[in-house]
Amino acid sequence: MSNLIKLNFENYSDKITSEFVKAQSLSIVEKEELLSLLNTSYPHWNIENIFDRYPDYEQLYIYRMRFNETLIASRQLLLVNNLITSPIWAKEMAHSLSINNFAIGSRVIVHPDFRKNGLGTHLVEHVNHEAYSRFEVEGILGSSTSLAAISLYLRLGAKLWKDDIQNISSDHTMNINNASLYNILNKNNLSRTRMSFPLRYIYSSNRQENECRKNWNHNLVSTNIQTASDKVISS
Description:
The protein is built from nine helices and nine strands. The protein has helices spanning 10-13, 28-38, 88-97, 119-133, 147-155, 162-165, 178-185, 206-211, 213-219, and strands spanning 3-4, 16-22, 60-67, 70-80, 102-110, 139-146, 159-161, 194-204, 220-221.
């Protein structure tokens, strides 16, 4: 059942609802609706692209938000409790960080008409909260080529995978190190800036990070870009 949520724009809050649904339960009409939303950022995608290519979709959830019954934002969450069914990139991270029960967050998307209203932040924070409290995961992994998305995720507490930073290249910058990456992430407009390959990141509960601090410190990079919070695109 949909639940009313409060956002930072009062004119819309009484008309916005949200819900978690299993991907397997989506009808053809609902899949086409999700594709229409995704096409606002990925116009060449078709119905086969709405979900990442995972071996097992049984534990894939969709968090979706509606305004007056129209889908305006969504995020996907895959629960992983078996490394065999995990993507290779996530398997490497989970093995190095000594975690077995984790989730993969993906496909954060907000309709262009509703961006810069905090919806992207809400998608990340709410789904992360559900993953920890409802599904009791040890960490939430993800990857993205979008510098705007990475900037948002870091501001909301994600940590970067060290090995990826050494190999970053984009249309504008080659051989980026830690300092220059964070300078780029503080720029005003990152909406069209993408890297040539995904940059991996992870959110963690404080308990899990404390228990595995040696492995986490060795493999991850944290940063504080709070000063750029007014410049970050929230979707």
